[in-house]
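stage 2 :: seqdesign
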């Protein structure tokens, strides 16, 4: 293995517009490459160091779906059942339908939202945190929204389409986190600590930071094309107060911490130390493409060509369409500030990549990084 091309790529993108980048590669449970470059703090010219904590954003979704799949394995959830069996507020949903003249009307949804719809982003929700029901909750709670109350507010938001008929990236996994609370009885964060991060020894992953961890939390940036410079943009726009444990975008972690979780999935659900978080059958179900043909046209992000969508993850289904060197069945997801997870049971390969730039250049960085890694494995 010769990872020189990968280090050169990291050097290139950090000299280009990304303040810092770090990658860690595990092959057959061994770290075979780790490299970082750039400045964690551009203003003070502080280089990125080991143990830097950053927002995972949507890479949180992989862990949220893993937690919910544990409840499926325990018989506490069934994918095909109506969500209202567990959360009654979702029993009768309204649907916003667009008329030929451009106007809209509200109608009663004919299909129930199923538990599977939350995993697969097919429930009919959007990613609009400015919906009136959510804004009313924020005001009534003084901006400190509990996870379960957030889901109750979402039940008042009209759907974009009949559940199970289309795919739309949305707040589904935030509701999934609330579903875990409703079924298990513990807070979502407590469940995550007891069932996943604690057993795996992930001491730097969570929805809240200690004072010591806060000192390692790195600034966040956005690149300003007008000035040609990255500017400070701290804060998580998907969070609503400290009580809200967002299953869609709320976790913070480090590269060395989150790779433990990802590598357990690479091992089909069990860490090298023998901690089992999912069964091999469940990991395979997670990375199975769950899109129907009508949904496939909705999942049309250019850099996801050749990928389907499983239970909260992209999954590689066509090399001809993707142009990627990874095998079929490689899966994972990314985050709003540019982090990337590659989970590959066939190659026994795990990639954890991180950066902290909101306009993240994902369509440029992620496909190139993946192909470079797979080419390096053959050298």
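stage 2 :: out
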């Amino acid at each position: 293995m010769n990872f020189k091309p990968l280090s050169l790529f990291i050097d290139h993108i950090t000299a280009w517009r990304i303040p810092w980048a770090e990658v860690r590669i595990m092959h057959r449970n061994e770290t075979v490459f780790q490299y970082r470059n750039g400045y964690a703090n551009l203003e003070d010219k502080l280089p990125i160091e080991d143990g830097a904590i950053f927002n995972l954003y949507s890479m949180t979704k992989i862990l949220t779906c893993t937690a919910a799949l544990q409840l499926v394995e325990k018989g506490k959830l069934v994918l095909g059942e109506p969500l209202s069996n567990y959360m009654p507020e979702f029993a009768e949903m309204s649907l916003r339908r667009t008329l030929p003249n451009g106007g809209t009307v509200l109608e009663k949804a004919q299909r129930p939202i199923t538990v599977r719809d939350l995993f697969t982003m097919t429930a009919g929700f959007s990613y609009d945190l400015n919906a009136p029901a959510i804004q009313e909750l924020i005001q009534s709670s003084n901006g400190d929204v509990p996870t379960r109350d957030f889901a109750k507010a979402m039940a008042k938001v009209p759907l974009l389409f009949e559940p199970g008929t289309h795919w739309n990236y949305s707040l589904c996994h935030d509701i999934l986190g609330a579903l875990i609370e409703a079924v298990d009885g513990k807070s979502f964060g407590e469940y995550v600590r007891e069932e996943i991060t604690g057993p795996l020894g992930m001491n730097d992953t969570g929805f809240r930071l200690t004072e010591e961890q806060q000192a390692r939390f790195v600034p966040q940036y956005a690149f300003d094309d007008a000035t040609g410079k990255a500017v400070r943009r701290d804060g998580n726009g998907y969070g609503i107060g400290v009580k809200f444990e967002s299953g869609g975008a709320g976790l913070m972690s480090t590269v060395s911490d989150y790779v433990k979780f990802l590598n357990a999935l690479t091992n089909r659900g069990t860490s090298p130390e023998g901690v089992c978080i999912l069964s091999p059958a469940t990991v395979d179900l997670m990375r199975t493409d769950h899109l129907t043909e009508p949904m496939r046209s909705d999942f049309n992000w250019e850099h996801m060509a050749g990928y389907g969508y499983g239970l909260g993850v992209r999954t590689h289904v066509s090399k001809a369409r993707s142009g990627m060197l990874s095998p079929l069945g490689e899966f994972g997801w990314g985050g709003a500030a540019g982090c990337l997870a590659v989970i590959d049971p066939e190659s026994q390969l795990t990639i954890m990549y991180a950066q902290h730039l909101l306009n993240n250049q994902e369509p440029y960085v992620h496909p190139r990084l993946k192909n470079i890694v797979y080419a390096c494995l053959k050298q």
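stage 3 :: structure notes
- Residues 362-377 form the longest helix (16 residues).
- Residues 4-59+203-377 form a domain with the Beta-lactamase fold (CATH 3.40.710.10).
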